[in-house]
Prior knowledge:
With 137 residues, the protein is low in regular secondary structure. The chain has 2 helices and 6 strands. Helix content is 7%, strand content 12%.
Amino acid sequence: MSLMVRQDRCIGCGACDFSCHxxxxxxxxxxxxxxxxxxxxxxxxxxxxxxxxxxxxxADARFPVCNGHGCPLHSDRLAGTECSIWQExxxxxxxxxxxxxxxxxxxxxxxxxHRKVHCPKTRLLTIIPSPTKAAKH
Length: 137
């Protein structure tokens, strides 16, 4: 799922930006102050949604919900496995790294653990590129 900012509703107040603990929000235009959410940094905590006075932050149906419906870590068989939420990615395949129960380091679920599952956002990397982080104003 992830989230997106409806640019036709955003007034650029920055309330969402101040509430985001992952720095997933970036000001796109310094004049208008309209924000954009990086779906590869957003962890779907939804805090910014309630902070927006214009209800401009809505679900982005192109993405699955981190640790929710559509995420393999939501399944019982991967219970206890943690995700780096795109803070660390595999140098070979580009997917986000996972920390398996009892492990000391994050590993690639595909390349290192030889699993047939990985972060479903990986397939979207070529379709929807991660926005370039601009300096926050």
